[in-house]
Amino acid sequence: MTKYKLFILFILFSISISGLNLFAVTNESVIIHMQISNMKHAQAPVFLDRKIIFSYDQKKYVRRVGIAFGFENYRVVYPFYKNDNNVFVYISDIPQGMDSLSYRIIVDGLWINDPHNPSLTRSADGFLISSLAIPSSLKKRIQSPTIEADRTVTFIYTGKSNETIFLSGNFNNWDPFMLKLTEDKNDPGYYSISLRIPPGRHYYTFIANGKEITDPQNPYKAIDQNGRRVSLVDVP
After folding, report:
1. Residue 190: which domain range?
2. What is the overall mean pLDDT for the chain?
3. pTM of the predicted structure, to 2 decimals
4. What kind and span of H or E run contains 34?
C-alpha cells in the first residue's frame, strides 16, 4: 500500500471519529471517575457501575484510538480519550440482551485486537476478534420493538431515571417532540410507548435528552436518504 493510500485512510479515520461525542466525564458516577483517573496502565475490560471500561496503553506516540463493535457491524468508530496518565479510555453502556460483545480497537487507523483481553472469537469471515462475555447479573433481555396482531408496536428504551425520551420516525414525519416515552414507575430507567402503525417498513430513532440515537435493543439498522443511521421495523 502506497504512502498516499495510507494517508487517505488516516484522514478518513480521523473524519469518522471527529463527529462522535465522547462520554462526558461529568456524567459518570464517582466510582467510574475515580477508576479512570487512577488508571496508570491499560487493563482488560472492566465492568463497573453497569458500564464497561475499555483501555489502551500508549506504547509509542499515538494520536487517536477508537473502538468498533460487532453488533454494529464495525461501522461506527467511537473515540477513546486520555486520562492524566496518558492511558486511552472508553466507557460503554452494556448492550441489552447480549451474552457477549465482540469488538476491535483502532489505533491511528490500524485495526487490532485488544492486547489486554485474551478472549477471542472467530467472525463470520474467519478473523479472530476480541470478545467479552457479559455477566448474567448484568443482562436484561429486552426486545424492542414488539408487534401485536393489531399492529400495535411498542418501542422500549432503557437508560437513567428522569430522562426525556421521544420517538421520531417516518410514521410521524420525523417530528422530534410528538411522541414522548413514559417511564415505568416500578422500573426506573425503563421507558416505553405503544402506537398503531400501518403495514410496511418503517424507520425511526430515539431522541434521548436532545440527542438522536438508534434503538440499542433493535439490531436492524439502515442508512436513510439523508445519510443518517436509523433503526428499522417491518410491520406485517
Report:
1. 146-235
2. 83
3. 0.51
4. helix 30-37
